[in-house]
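Deliverable D4.2, example record:
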Amino acid sequence: MHLFSSSPPPSTCSSSKYTLLSPQNSNPLKFHLVVPFKALHPSSSHPQLSPICSHESSSPPPLIQESPQRFQPQADDIIVREDDFEVAEKIRTAKKSLEELLVVRRPLKEITAEEEEEEEEEEEIIESEDEEVEEEKSSVSSMPFDAKLSKFAKKMPIFEPERVEQIPGGKPLTINLDLALYRAKILARNFQYQASEKILQKCIYYWPEDGRSYVALGKILSKQSKMGEARAVYEKGCQATQGENPYIWQCWAVLENKMGNIRRARELFDAATVADKRHIAAWHGWAVLELKQGNIKKARNLLGKGLKFCGGNEYIYQTLALLEAKAKRYEQARYLFRQATKCNPKSCASWLAWAQLEAQQENNPAARQLFEAAVQASPKNRFAWHVWGVFESNLGNIDKGRKLLKIGHTVNPRDPVLLQSLALLEYRYSNANLARMLFRKASKLDPRHQPVWIAWGWMEWKEGNISTARDLYQRALSIDSTTESAGRCLQAWGVLEQRIGNLSAARRLFRSSLNINSQSYVTWMTWASLEENQGNSVRAEEIRNLYFQQRTEVVDDAAWAMGFLDIIDPAIDSIKKLLNLGQNPYKKVVNSFTGSPGAENGDSGEESAGRSSDYVKGTRSEEEFDLDKFVREKLSLDPSELEVQLGTLEKVTAVSIKSPRKVSLLQRTAARPSPKP
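Output generated by the structure prediction step:
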């Protein structure tokens, strides 16, 4: 049994000296006990305590106290002074043992797993009740603000993915999605839309979180003029991806733009840039929309943001270059075209647009070399072959133009535009029967292509077939009467009625054409000439004044372009500041490329055109571009067989374009005899 002895502490002391006596050894072990109060003796300000030496207390003092409190000895406490050894001898014979007196702690009760789960559930229930109480308190304080937010939230679409049921047999591997998308793409390219739609619907069922299926399905539906279904697919895709896929937003915006919903298209383009500010297609598509609406400054701002967030891009540079060319700032346009081709040397569109700029400036050698670069960048590009063929035909190179159009048609047998241009070429320089066959073939390839019907109607009018021309014009308008092509069709039809004397019908057709496109200078002046030929000079002058009053003149800021080019290429700008202080940054481009009349060296136009060609490839090539060799190596075609293939139009679409991998096999085998015409 442990015994405690102490000496009387003073009234202001906070610690006491005690001695521990063990039952086996009577030698005292002294230690200090710190007491959490100032005075142990009773005073006037405290309630009276029992004497410290009292033996009336019987219960042991608590071993651990949570908060400091006054010392109150119990009846079982055995506290003696250091000199009172007699009392210590009597206490040794006490009945209670040390184990009964000193109990450190109770053993913990073992808890089963079921009891733990029940306790956790009770705690979760209590926590949820506390959270509900707090939410009720906060809702009471912010009731007016939450009411406004709830009204605003009802107007916004909720992008919550639908719960997908568990697929029996498990979800297929992701590689199956890639293979299915590729197969659907090939089927759509072969105009097998229904089979492609079934595959894409399965992809959406198994992988609803992947946005590629929605984009592909929406494009296929829009090609079939199923605009409502395509819109529903895009909306479903945005909900399934929680609005985080910019490609779906951008495709949806393009669809709304085609349908004429300009305001909705702007909102969707904005959503695409919010989903991913590095999505260059959204910035470029939005800028093109603003350009069509005449908002040049807004378009430039959007293109600048695209370059800021996405870096150099050939489409952005190309669009800016076209803006500069339209504003007749050709040096800046060439600089931007150069940047576009540097970003992507395989960009056929950039080379083609640059070639058209040089053709407009009558730099024919430079334009021809740029056309060659466009074809080399994309050997099967139908636009490159078409524009190059029309360019050569306009220069009087009829045979070369015909040859280029035939190559383009052989490579792209499903394109009606190439056949349309070839038909007009044959009508002008050959005969109408061959042109009529080509027009019929083009209309079968794409019955909804309006320019084919319009050009065919124009040819029949020139041939004197008035009723046939009217039927063809009516067929073109039945496809879509709101497009720009419909406006041109109405204008051509009005000219036809004017020439045969139906003036009232001609006036109605001209008015309908201007309702579609009020900015058509040709239509306004044709109508004015009609009135003037009839002796209504006053009415003709009114029509001319109406055109100048309602026309929209786009004013572009040239100073903005100069500063913008410094922003898009700061590294080059810093070098220019070091080397060419105070000089025009485009002066070197002008002198080395265009050779404009204001050049310092005063070279002639032919020499400047030669330098333009040198500038395209960096060094002037000694050998000219061999078209026949290029067609044999890159397209595996025989140029001598193009005439034969075109003579039998039914066999043109059946011509198979052999890949370059099979060229070596073809060289090993014997040459096949060419089919007879």
